[in-house]
Amino acid sequence: MMATRSALFSRRRLPWAGAAAVLSLLVLAACQHDGSGGLTLSEIFEGTPQPVRASKHMIVAGHPLAAEAGLDMLRAGGGAIDAAIAAEMVLSLVEPQSSGIGGGAFLIHYAAESGAIDAYDGRETAPKSANPYMFLDGTGKPRDHRDAAIGGMAVGVPGLLRMLEMAHKEYGRLPWRDLFKPAIDLAGKGFPISKRLARLIAGAKGLSESPVAGVYFFNNDGTPKAEGELLRNPDLADTLERVAREGAGAFHGGDIAKAIVKAVGGAPRNPSGMKVSDIEAYKAKKRPPVCLPYRAWLVCGIGPPSSGGITTLQILGMVQNFDLAALGPDSLEAVHLIAEAGALAFADRDAYIADPDFVAVPAAALLDPEYLRLRATGITPGTAWGRRQPGMPGKSAWLPMAIGKTHEGFSTTHLSVIDGQGNAVALTASNAWTFGSRLMVRGFILNNQLTDFAFRPNTRDGALIANRAMPGKRPRSSMAPTLVFDGRGRVVMAIGSPGGTSIIGYVTKALIAALDWKLNIQSAVDSANFLSRNDGLRIEAGTRLEKMVPALEKIGHQVKLFNRASGLNGIFVNEGGLEGGADKRREGVALGD
């Protein structure tokens, strides 16, 4: 029998009495290639990559300076939340193309002492001036996405700081102000521009024309600042100092909020009607985590408005009907089965998942094991069935919203932390597209996350699209910070990735590689990417999987090669301690003691 809705949406607590408890559970609810800056693909796939090992605590983050800041907090007695905040503040400085205080995030936290699993929603919201037709042109057709993404109209009210403050009040150990010191010091002294950041500055269209960002990222002669050049950001140092001293309210009101409104309202392209009251009214939210038993483990992620958790769990829930361990990595049949499950899950995602404050999302029904078993009967070994339609979760009277495709950005970052007490954090943060809206205020980049809404509010026959834009609404995301627990309720894995809608495929691949195929976490992270978003099978170019393209096409897959850089950063816990893996396609590192 399926658990009640109230039980499904209660706060999760671990541990359980043993492995049988996990297995007896029913559903627990609910790049554009942007450069690697790391090794080449041929180097990534040579040999067996080895993880970084530690016995006490560990952080894996998308930039060495951010990981160092987080490790400093752990060494100072801070918990996983403290380390995550310090690292993300540094990422706001050193990875401005990907995330920061001008954007949003999702965070999942495990408290070892109480067993609580808490999911935090810091997703951006649309201002009151937003409407379902905001991304249509004068003829009623969707605007070109790249044109709409630059300027003020695409900027959502940032939520990162409010979310981190909420999590810190519940689980922080160190003073809030101390967590900002590494980023403040680096912003004042300067940091060397990395290879990846230099490449992205040079390739970001429209960035040099931005009134503030152009001056910051480009020289007086118009050339982009180069790798190794020291980049100082005293404006960000001042902003972070105020937030450190006064809390997130300093960002969501006063001069900083006024500066944001002035920037988006006076943007040369696509000005916005955002008001200071929109920023003042923003609230971070606690959401019910979504969890599902997967073989001997329990996998937990973020629920709506992110689709990442449910869609990842749906794929896992379907493929656990097959013996992936016996098939092994680099297996044609394994790639086929996982891709078919991905197509089915994305069909449901596109139809049902949006901001749950505006749309009735059938989260529990989508994760009902019986529903997933029935969906899995649509997977045929050796035959691909092309584009899939959404299923009918729950009561037969339930009808899906109209399917609405979106163009999610891929400039995102992920970090994973496990502290000495066994508390764990998986945090994914984003500015949407590379350098977001291209607007810079008080030292930070403003997001362009509102382009994650469906550009059409309804289909040609008038059916409403769940992810249509509305005032105060959060756009659907694919961010998928994930925690995995063993049968005794111990956290064994923290994982996540940037990559837009590809995040779901990246995270699913890493989970299966580590749990089914027993690859070490570094090998699981670095293994070849492949995924289906219900629009064909994508295989990572330059990898070992490329050789199986003809065979995949022979059984019916429409295969496309792609080279967008994942940025998986994960930690795996085993009897020997902590093992960390940072995606070599980018420039992250794992650090621990």
Write structural notes for this entry.
This protein has 21 helices and 22 strands. It has a domain at 41-286 and 409-506 and 565-592: Glutamine Phosphoribosylpyrophosphate, subunit 1, domain 1. It is globular, with a radius of gyration of 22 Å. With 593 residues, the protein is α+β, with helices and mostly antiparallel strands. Helix 5 runs parallel beside helix 8, helix 14 crosses helix 18 (369-376) and helix 14 (308-319) packs across helix 19.
For this structure, what is the CATH class of the domain at 41-286 and 409-506 and 565-592? Alpha Beta
How confident overall, as mean pLDDT? 90
- The fraction of residues assigned to DSSP E strands is 15-25%
Number of strands: 22
CATH homologous superfamily grouping of the domain at 41-286 and 409-506 and 565-592: Gamma-glutamyltranspeptidase, small (S) subunit
User: For the terminal residues, how far apart are their CA atoms?
Assistant: 45 Å
Helix content: 25-40%
What fold name stands as the CATH topology of the domain at 41-286 and 409-506 and 565-592?
Glutamine Phosphoribosylpyrophosphate, subunit 1, domain 1
Count of DSSP-assigned helices: 21
Which residues form runs of ≥5 with pLDDT under 50? 1-11, 14-44
Shape: globular
